[in-house]
Write the structure tokens for this entry.
Amino acid sequence: MRIELNLNGKPLQAEIQPDTLLIDLVRKQGCYSVKRGCETSNCGACTVWMDEQPVLSCGVLAARAAGHRVVTLEGMQGEAEEFAKFLAAQGADQCGFCNPGYVMNAMALFRENADPTEEEIRAYLAGNLCRCSGYESQIRGIQAYLAYKQGKGAAQ
Amino acid sequence: MVTLRQLERHAGLNELTQAAAAECVKSIVGVQFRNLATVGGSVYGRFGFSDVLTFFMAVNAQVELYHRGLVSVEEFAQLPDERDILVRVIVPRRPQQVAYLSRRNTRTDFPVLACCIAQSGEGVRCCIGARPGRAVCLTDEKDILSGGVTPETAKAFGDYVSQTVKTGDNLRASGEYRRRIAGVLARRALIQLAER
């Protein structure tokens, strides 16, 4: 079957099977930031946005994305890079496998709630598993990033 | 289709249920998962572990099935599997106090036990889910709470729940553990309602 969608701001026509998963479709388009971690919709490594909402691309049929806007980390480069520096500064990147999904979901949090409490951060990111760290460095990185953004906002 | 995340963020439903709608889904995997999983999928499946089924049963919601018509969630949970289509879930809009509590081994895992209590003009409905069987509804048939909720009557009702609810063993917990937890969560939920 043939579907049309918007991937990272560009129109995309794709020939898919009825059971093709969104993760396979976007990886086939070269979006290798989208990781296959658990493949049971539990780990968050395959997080992409569909119409600005974070979803697990291993749990979405590609056909369901027809007519929608899909964004992967490849489509967020500037903003994601700025944020990722704050994670790296806290040593939150270890093996790095969970990182793209983590960044995509954190970005979704910032869109929804520009000034989250630590509890809100933890609740929003509970579906992103990291097997290297104990999540403390990620929390520090997020808080440092938010403080930087707010400081920048106040300075302007 | 309504996603679990929409249920979580719906202002009207959460005002009506004192945020119990959000509480019942907040521990389900993660935001990304809740943006995909639907209320209909949770309710129609009548899964034993379902937080969502437990919540809708306590607030005495109805389901509209294409073939069978209107049925209470409580009755629907006991029906055998039939080929039908869930058209909508109807929540009665009436003054009620609702509290939702669950016990989990880890934050985003299935519940070991779920408890939702709703208090309205028709009395107290105490639904216990993840027994691990499908949720069931207990009422105050012994009039334990007729004089109001106090620490003593809440404990007595919790004991009644422990003694009455049928629980079983699975990988996550034993039936005996669940039986005890059911009483504790019922007591805490009642105290929560009384302290508002």
User: Anything to note?
Assistant: The beta strands of chain B are 62-65, 69-72, 86-90, 97-104, 111-120, 123-129, 136-139. Chain B is about 40% helix and 20% strand. The mean pLDDT of chain B is 97. The two ends of chain B are 33 Å apart (CA to CA).
